[in-house]
Amino acid sequence: MAVTLTKGQKISLEKEAGGTLTKVVMGLGWDAKKTKGFLGFGGGSQTIDLDASCILFDDKGAQVDAVWFQQLRSKDGSIQHTGDNRTGAGEGDDEQIIVDLPRVPANVKTLVFVVNSFTGQNFSQIENAFCRIVDHASGREVARYILSGGGSHTAQIMAKVYRHNGEWKMHAIGEPCSGRTFLDLLPTIKPLL
Predict the structure, then answer these.
(1) 79 with 56: CB under 8 angstroms?
(2) What is the domain count for the chain?
(3) What tens digit of pLDDT does each residue of 93-142 get?
(4) Which residues of 23-166 form beta strands (DSSP E)?
(5) Residue 148 confidence (pLDDT) above 80
(6) When you count CB atoms within 10 A of the terminal residue's CB, does the N or C end of the chain come out lower?
(7) Contact 141/133 with Cβ under 8 angstroms?
(8) What is the CATH number of the domain that holds 29?
């Protein structure tokens, strides 16, 4: 059974998975809120382009690499973005980032996962937003974090996955911020490392 995380909660990924994890998937899902038309007629849903990104940091807090819609694979090949979903339509994960944990370079201590509204809509226009960690081998969900809805922010620092005493842990951050890409969020990310 997956753990539903609260803001600020930290877990051991291996303990929650019940054993060693090699590949994990960070999934991001969301829906655009339905709009109401005049007198209840003509409503629909808008297109909202949220983007998941993973930023890699060393133990000194320096950025080593980033995986996002403009670079779908880390330079070392350990992290792969499956592609940009520009609408949020459909069920389940709308975007996924696959992390091959044993292949993450030893100098990388922290992976920070963020979500941005590239088109500038704010979080008051989305619903059912979540991020989750899935064991790639079994497809079993290990942990889920519900992204707080509402608000005028256009981005959120979802979570970080980090090395601690030889194991990978996850910290649900849920920090609202604003920016079109992860680059805009770096000043907010740095103190959270």
Answers:
(1) yes
(2) 1
(3) 889 999 999 999 999 999 999 999 888 888 888 888 888 999 999 999 99
(4) 23-32, 34-35, 44-45, 50-58, 63-67, 79-81, 95-100, 108-117, 126-135, 141-146, 155-164
(5) no
(6) N
(7) yes
(8) 2.60.60.30
Query: Where does 7-95 have alpha helices with state H?
Result: 13-17
Q: Which amino acid is at 169?
A: K
Asked whether the predicted pLDDT for residue 89 surpasses 60, the reply is no
Across 38-42, 111-115, 148-152, 188-192, least confident range: 38-42
Residue 47, CB half-sphere, CA atoms under 13 Å: how many? Answer: 6
Structure tokens belonging to residue 65: 């690499």
Q: Which contacts of 188-193 are long-range, i.e. CB under 8 A and separated by 24 or more positions?
A: 188/157, 189/55, 189/112, 189/114, 189/157, 190/61, 192/112, 192/157, 192/160, 193/57, 193/61, 193/110, 193/112, 193/160
On the CB side of 16, CA atoms within 13 Å amount to 23
d(CA 154, CA 169): 27
Q: Which two tokens stand for residue 55?
A: 């930023």
Question: What is the model's pTM?
Answer: 0.89
